[in-house]
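[User]
If only I could read backbone structure tokens as easily as an amino acid sequence. I have put the entry right below:
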Amino acid sequence: MVARLNLFAAVTVASLFATAAQAADYAPPPCYDAAIIAAGRAPPGAVPCYAPPPPVVEEFGGWYLRGYVGMSNQQAKLSHPSFNERPYTHQDDGFDSAPFFGAGVGYYFNEWLRFDVTGEYRGSANYHGYGTYPGGSDEYRARKKEWVGLLNAYVDLGTWNRLTPFVGAGVGGAYNTVSSFLDINTPTGGVYSAQSGSKFNFAWALHAGFAYKVTPNFTVELAYRYLDLGKAVTGNGVSFDGTNANGRPFEFDKLISHDIMLGLRFNLDGFEMFSRPAPVYYAPAPVYSPPPVYVQPPLQSRG
């Protein structure tokens, strides 16, 4: 009886080792290159080899071009040394609206922050002013134009249904030119003119607006801009009879503009030479069924 039990134990242990060996020796079916499978040169039921995808790296950035047009609404304070020599009151002064246009190049730093550099020409705006002093009054006329360059930074505040609100600020310079300046004495009709004059100033701006993404690479903008242009000056003054050609110039101080702008933005990623490579998609790893496990049934003892 003891011999039979020992024999049973030995057979059971051997069966377990054989089963474990079978499981260890199991190998998944061979895989084949996807190109071989597509060409029909692989056996039926062949599976493609799985290549683990590379680690995902978040990429931001991208260059863009922009162009824009707009209308200005400018304000300034006309000053002259003679205004301080006698009581003088400005009754009315201001500029007509004038068109401007500009272009630039920018870079998306990430999904929230972008920068651009712009150059802009601001067309001539007519100035009309009127002031009074004891015993008389003066009417003023002039034309003014500018060249403006700005380095701007914007924060995009999120996108809803392709619409992205944004705010921004810019710093740079403005080259302001005043021409056709006339000082007309209303009671007498006497005319005092000034030569054309130009001045370069520090300029800064604040932006707020909305951008609508028409396509992934094409965006339309509508924005408001507060622009500080510094000051503008005329050349020397000239009396109506040509004398006193070295008269003191007039100045337009605190020159600002409230601008409405319509612009276009085009992402350079739309060109093949600037575009990133297309993403590569990997098939999921094949899942194999576990190997079967065989269990040796117990031996029946014969009594």
Observations:
- Residues 2-48 form one domain.
- The first strand starts at residue 31 and ends at 32.
- The longest helix spans residues 2-25.
- The two ends are 9 Å apart (CA to CA).
